[in-house]
Amino acid sequence: MFPDLTRDDVFRIETRRLWLRWPTAKDRDAILKLAGDPSVSAMLARVPHPLAAPAVDAFLLQARSQNAAGTALTLALAPRAAPGSLVGVISIEGRAGAPPELGYWLGRPYWGSGLMAEAVTALCHAFFAYTGGTELAASARTVNPASRRVLEACGFLPAGSAIMPFPARGADLPVDLYRLDRRRWQGSSSEPAMTEAA
Q1: How many other C-beta atoms lie within 10 A of the C-beta of residue 139?
Q2: Whole-prediction pTM value?
Q3: Are 93 and 112 spatial neighbours (Cβ–Cβ below 8 Å)?
Q4: What confidence tier does 188 reach under pLDDT thresholds 50, 70, 90?
Q5: CA 198, CA 194: separation in Å to the nearest integer?
Q6: Which domains does the chain have, with CATH numbers?
Q7: Please, which residues have CB within 8 angstroms of residue 100's CB and are 6 or more apart in sequence?
Q8: What range(s) does the N-acetyltransferase domain occupy (predicted)?
Q9: Structural contact between residues 157 and 146, judged by C-beta atoms closer than 8 angstroms
Q10: In 3D, which of 60, 118, 122, 115 has the Cα closest to residue 92?
Q11: What is the pLDDT of residues 153-169, one digit of tens each?
Q12: For residue range 26-79, what is the model confidence (pLDDT) as tens digits?
């Protein structure tokens, strides 16, 4: 799905305030702290609470493996002023017989700052510009209005609702579904800078 450009760990996307870069082992403690926050993990299908270090290690290995294979693109969000400091994670993963799916989380200290909308816009630009993809899917728990606002601000349109498995929550939970297609993306502006330089 993703081209050679993104399959090297020096790949990054730069926005006004962020670097979106491959996650590394050095991000482990930040992920444990930020994704392990119950207010963050409660909204995520695959992040358990409490979050244990072996689960984070497995996530990092899987993310880097999928990035290298081009089957997904998982990137750490880091402030441009401190590119080694992870504040969240964003990804696009391929799905058999369905549009690729956007997912993300942001550490609670950074909520309300507009950083996630900045990151979503940047990764959507990368997806449509570099993969030839025609549509992206996303979902948000119905109890997560902030995530819905991010998707809508980035051009995603509502596409109904569903009950989806949240294995880390031990239940199937209601979500709002969203879609962004290539035509709508082409009508947007402010493409971020892309670079392969480290």
Answers
A1: 22
A2: 0.95
A3: no
A4: confident
A5: 11
A6: 4-133+191-195 (3.40.630.30)
A7: 1, 92, 93, 94, 127, 133, 136, 137
A8: 17-156
A9: no
A10: 122
A11: 999 999 999 999 999 99
A12: 999 999 999 999 999 999 999 999 999 999 999 999 999 999 999 999 999 999
pLDDT of 196 > 60? The answer is: no
| Residue appearing with tokens 């391929």 | 94
What amino acid occupies position 151? Answer: L
Residue 194 banded pLDDT, cuts 50, 70, 90:
low
